[in-house]
Amino acid sequence: MKTVKTLFDNNRQWAAKITQSNPLFFQQLARQQSPKYLWIGCADSRVPANEIVGLLPGELFVHRNVANLVIHTDMNCLSVLQYAVDVLKVRHVIVCGHYGCGGIKAAVEERRHGLIDNWLRHIRDLYQRNRAGLDKAGNRAAMIHRLCELNVKEQVINASNTTIVQDAWRRRQDLSIHGWIYDIHDGLLKDLAVTVGLKR
Ligand code: CO
Predict the structure, then answer these.
(1) What is the average per-residue pLDDT within 187-200?
(2) Does the pTM exceed 0.70?
């Protein structure tokens, strides 16, 4: 119980610190949120969305799942995307993967991990479709490195192909989908240069 209590202590300190720098911060934020970005990232505890990009509460709408997947039948992810695009009118959707992703590694292992293998099957399919190229990476670590990047690109395509994003572009809404990757070894982000959006 001691460790859980620590979280409440931390929370009071955090709220006090923010209120100290801006006494109206929470009051203003409680009225409305108007984030410009939607982050679709991995659930991994080493990839904390707001902290990585230095954004405060209210500035980043966030969806996270194992291995940052955008699956066409995932009502959770699609609902977040729809609300972000149609209601909040975010300008940027960022699909952010990370090197050393446990989900990616597990997807190409030959052993069972439980229910999650069904979720990870999407990555295994991606691996099998691109096996010829991926196996040229040299060793397994390099192959997984590439698969982490390829998975981000695939999810950018998936997000772009949703009815939500297609309809937004059809009505000329300012919306770009980006593919980024985060390196847990140095804390740095890399743009995979696969941004999709309307030409203006
Ligand atoms: Co991960």
Answers:
(1) 93
(2) yes
